[in-house]
Design goal:
This protein has 332 residues and is of the alpha/beta class. It has one domain: Rossmann fold (3-Layer(aba) Sandwich), CATH 3.40.50.720. The C terminus is likely disordered.
């Protein structure tokens, strides 16, 4: 990831709060902020995060985003809040809609309230490409009408609306970044609802036959995690008066699940013949980001392409998954 962008100097000496900072994306973002000379507070309840993910130098607050006193304390003195904590699984949201909406909507509201009370400069929200659903209009643009196929998708759209409302009602800047199928090191493959790239890697390294739900022709804009971190830093450091804007963050391409599996197998030097299961409720058929708005407003462009990101992720997975590393053990 590029850390020599001139606007990134703004993070030196500032304090940021990263909710979900023990998770996959949050931990990478925390590391980047520390590398830039910033101070970071990580708030995480370890529902899905790993303590070993938290970089040295970050301050840890063990709490949920539903814990108002902990949030208020963690946000105090912060210039930026990066809200990454969420229930992130579409299938789990279908099985447990109440829990999804509680964490993703009420939790986001409480993060905004804590940030507003603390006088935070800007809140960055991890939104999702799930907002676009099964729209036939590709690539997806931010002005397309949301098409929610799961409680998870609807909760993320609700979060975007909350951020816009707070920016318009109070003196706080907010930005929502719609992530498109992020992958990379530290993505947990052991969940029953693991993201497809990490699940493929884990299966192939263990010598198991990987599972594809559906025919495998569904496509995704698979995006290395470095691009999301870069986008967050650009959005946080932008001198534009951002007030609830939504930006797509992806690579701008489409790769089928079968093509992704083939690329992973090639990176690992193995062969892969998948088994197929039924399509899962809430899953969409195709997804692709139009990243022109993020490029024009934030100066965003992918810093790592799909193939490079996959090679890096496969190398990490080979060293971690095959060794039973402590990196995959959750906080006790």
């Amino acid at each position: 990831m590029t850390t020599d962008h001139p606007s990134f100097q703004i993070f030196q000496g500032t304090t940021s709060l990263v909710t979900g900072g023990a998770g996959f994306i949050g931990s990478h973002l925390t590391q980047a902020l520390l590398n830039l000379g910033g101070k970071v507070r990580v708030l995480d309840n370890f529902e899905s995060g790993f303590e070993s993910n938290i970089p040295k130098g970050a301050d840890l607050v063990r709490a949920s985003v539903l814990d108002e006193p902990a949030l208020n304390s963690a946000a105090r003195g912060c210039s930026y809040v990066f809200h990454e904590a969420a229930m992130v699984s579409v299938p789990v949201s279908v099985a447990k809609p109440d829990e999804c909406l509680e964490v993703n909507i009420r939790g986001t509201h409480r993060v905004l309230e804590a940030a507003r009370t603390a006088g935070v400069r800007r809140v960055l929200f991890a939104a999702s490409a799930a907002a676009y659903g099964n729209t036939p209009l590709l690539p997806s643009r931010e002005d397309h009408v949301p098409d929610c196929w799961s409680p998870y998708a609807s909760s993320k759209v609700a979060g975007e609306l909350l951020l816009a409302a707070y920016a318009r009602s109070y003196s706080i800047s907010t930005v929502s970044l719609r992530y498109f199928n992020i992958f990379g090191p530290r993505q947990d493959p052991k969940s029953a609802y693991a993201a497809v790239i990490s699940a493929f890697l884990d299966a192939l390294i263990a010598g198991r036959q990987p599972m594809i739900f559906g025919d495998g022709q569904q496509t995704r804009d698979f995006t290395p995690v470095e691009n999301v971190v870069h986008a967050n830093l650009l959005a946080a450091s932008s001198d534009r008066p951002l007030a609830g804007e939504v930006f797509n963050i992806g690579c701008g391409g489409r790769v089928s699940l079968l093509q992704a599996l083939e690329q992973i197998a090639r990176s690992l030097g193995v062969s892969a013949v998948p088994r197929h299961g039924p399509v899962r409720a809430g899953d969409v058929r195709h997804s692709q980001a139009d990243i022109s708005r993020a490029r024009e407003v934030l100066g965003y462009a992918p810093v790592v392409d799909f193939e490079t990101g996959m090679a890096r992720t496969a190398a990490w997975a080979r060293s971690v998954f095959s060794s039973g590393s402590e990196a995959r053990k959750p906080h006790a």
